[in-house]
Amino acid sequence: MRLYRVEVQAGAEIPLHSHPTPLTGHIEKGQLKLTKDSGQSETFLEGDSFVLGAKTPPHTMGNTGNKSAVMGVSVASAEGIPTLTPVQ
Q1: Residue 13 lies in a domain
Q2: Total domain count for the chain?
């Protein structure tokens, strides 16, 4: 199990990526918008939690708010498996 604290500045976006293993996220501060490569999106607000499976389609995660967003992430995977895989 790996734990991360991810801060995303206002207006910033984590580029298109996927996850090879399941993860959970919790928005500690601000808001983040997950947009799948199909265009479907969902906005997570402060206090929201979510689960992404290994079969979740490639997506971006962007801060659509006007302040930094902070997300706690936990990943269940074996040593050596990446948390995030960039999509070209």
Answers
A1: yes
A2: 1
